[in-house]
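User: Sequence in, structure out. Go.
Assistant: Echoing your sequence, followed by the C-alpha cells.
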Amino acid sequence: MGIITRVTERARVYRTDAIVLRRSDLGEADRVLTLFTPQHGKLRAVAKGARRPGSRKAGHLEPFTLVNLLLARGRELDIITQAEAVRTFPQVRADLLRLSLAAYVAELTDRFGIQESDSHGLFQLAADTLDRLDREAVPDVALRYFQVRLLDLAGFRPELFRCVSCSNAAQPVDQFFSLSEGGLLCPNCGPQREEALPLSLSALKILRHTQRSSYEQAARPKLSPGVAQEVDGLLESYLSYVLERKLNVPGFVRQVRRLKEARVYS
C-alpha cells in the first residue's frame, strides 16, 4: 500500500495519507478528527462544514478509512482542505464483528501513537491490518498479529522463551506470565507471584508462532475457542498494563462475539 507524503516541517500546506481513528462534532457544522499519519504520527484536524448536507468531504472522512488529505496548518488545529478516500474497507463496515475489531485497532493505534513523530512502521501495520480485517475469512488472526507486532514496535516485546525470574529456558509444560516483567514465569517461579497469570502450553505455542512468523504463517494454525480466548485475554491484559489504563473496545468485541454466537446476527 503506497504512502504519499509531501511535507516540510515548516510548510503551511501539506499532503499526507492518514487513517481516520475517530471523530467528534464541533459547533454546528464542523468535525474534529483524530488521524494517524506515517510522517507526523497522531494529529487532530478540523474538517469545516463536514456535517452540512452535501459536504464533499464527509463521505471521505469516516472512521477506519485510509484517506489522502491536503491540510493547512492552523493556530490550534490543522484544517482539512481536501480529502480523498483511498480505501474504505467495505467488508469491515458490513459486518459488526469486523467493525468492532477495526475499532480495537484504532484504539490501540490512538493509545500508542505519538504526535509529531515518524510513524511509518505503525502506520503501515495499522493499514495492513484494516486490509486483512476487510478480506480475511477469519478476521481474528489479523487483530492478534497486529497486537503482537505493535508490542514489538513499541519496545514491549514479551519474553516467551525463558523465565524472566530465574532465566531458565522454558520447558514444554504449562507456564505463567508476568505482566510487570513482560514475560514467562516457569512453574517454579510463577506460583510465588500474586500477579502471575496462568499460561497453557497451547497458548504459549500460538504466541511464540505469531511473534516469529510472517502474517501468512501466523494465520495457518486453527485455534480452539478456548485457546483463542486465552491468547486474546493475555494480550489484552498485557497491553492494558503497558498503557496503564483499561482498554475500552475489548468489552464491546466480547459483546459482539456473544451476539454472534447466539445468532442474533450472522
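User: And one key feature?
Assistant: The chain has a mean pLDDT of 93.
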